[in-house]
Amino acid sequence: MIRRKMLSLLLAVALIVALVPATVAGAAVKSVNVTIDGKKQTYSVSPRIENGRTLVPYRAIAEALGGTVSYDAKSKKATIKKSGQTIELTQGSKSARINGSAVTLDAAPLNVSGTLLVPLRFVGESLGVWVTWNQSSSTAVLETKRTFKHDLGSTTLNGVPKRVVVLFNGGVDISVLLKVKPVGAVESYIQQPFYEYIRSNLIGTKTLGDETQPNVEAIVALKPDVIIATKDRHEGIYGQLSKIAPTIVTKDLADWQDNLQVMSKVLNKEDIATSFLADWKKQVADFKSKLPAKDKGAAISIIRVNPNGTARAYNTGFAYKIFQELGFSTPKAQLAVGQEIIPVASQEQISLLDGDYIFDFTTDWDGDGAILQHQKTWTSSALWKNLNAVKNNKYYKVNSVTWNLSGGALAAKLMLDDLYFYFGLE
C-alpha cells in the first residue's frame, strides 16, 4: 500500500514537471553579442559566460582585426601575430605570453568544437583594441580607434597606447592604480624620483622633470604612443606636445575622479576605474554615516606655511574637493575674502586660518627644515593658540604628499583613511 502511494506521488510530480514550460523550469542562458566598431559579429561558436567570465572566440576576432593565427594541435598552443606583436596561449592554461613577456589570464582558454574561447579582457590587452561590456545588451564592444574631446581640441588614437607618457603627478598615481607603467613620467615634487607610496611600481620609468616644465627633448626620445597632460599645467605647450604624439589633456589637475575616468578610457582600463569609484562611493557613504552630528558640516580650514614665512588657506584643490564631497563646509571668514587661495601675510590676519578643524600640509620642500621653522613661528604665537580649532585640539599636521602634492586616486584613498583617524571613526 505504501509503495503504491509513493509511486503515485512520484508520477504526479513527474507529470507536473513535464507540464512546466522550459522558460519557467530553467531560465534560458542569455546570448552574448560582440561588435567591432559598431558592427555585430557572428561566429560558428557563440561567445558565452563561464563562471562569471565572458569568453569570446579569439581566432575569429584576431583575424577580423588583421591578425594571423596558427595552432599546434599537439601542444594545444595558439600563436597570433598582429602589428608586430606576437601572442602565445595554450588551451587550459592561464599563462600566456605577449612578445615574450608572461601574462596571466582571468580564466584558462576553453576549446569548444575546435574554437578557442578566451577571456574578454585578454582580447583588449593582447590585440590593442578597446573592450567594454554593455550589461544591458550583453554585448562585448570592441573599438579599434577612439576620439577624445577635451578643452584644447580633439585627439584620435588608432589603438590602445602601449608607450605612455604622463605629465602630472595625479596622473602618475592613477597609472599605478590602472596597472599601466608609463615609459616616462614627471618626477615628484619631493621624495624624488617618485613618491614613496607608488615608487616600487615605477621602476624603469624615465623621469621627465617637473610637471610645471617637463623635459620636451626627453619626451621626444621616448617615442610615446600617447601623452597624457593637464590643462592647468600644459596649455601653453599643448601644440608642441601634440606634434610629438597624440596628446590627451585633462581639464582640472585636482579633479582626480574625472582624471581617473579619462585615463581609464585612454588606457583600456575602465573596469578598474569603475570598481575603484564604486568602492570610493561606498566608503564616502560609510564615513558620512559614522560622522557624529556635532561634526556634520564642520568648517574645515586647509592651510600651509610658505617658504617665505607667509601662510595661506585653500578653498580649492585636491583636499578641498574631498572635504566638499564629504559634506564639510568652508570657514565663513575665508568665504568672505572671495578667493580660492587666501594669502595670510602676517599674524594680524591669523584668524583667516581658523575653522572647526585645521589641517596643515606644510611641505619641507628642500628637506633642510627651514620651512618647518617658519611653521613653528606661526604655531607658537599667542594669537595662534587663541584660534578655536587650536584651543579645541583640532589642529592636525598631515601628509603633504597624499593630501596635496600627488592628487591621484590612490592618494585620495589614503587621505580618506587618515580622516577616519582624525575624526575618531576607526
From TrEMBL:
All residue ranges annotated as the Fe/B12 periplasmic-binding domain in the record: 163-426
Record's signal peptide: 1-27
InterPro entries: ABC_transptr_periplasmic_BD, Bact_iron-sidero_bind, Cu_amine_oxidase-like_N, Mao_N_sf
UniProt feature coiled coil, ranges: none
Alphabetic keyword roster: Signal, Transport
CDD domains found in the cross-reference section: FhuD
Any Pfam family the entry gives: Peripla_BP_2
Compartments, as annotated in UniProt: Cell envelope
Family statement: Belongs to the bacterial solute-binding protein 8 family.
Protein name: Fe/B12 periplasmic-binding domain-containing protein
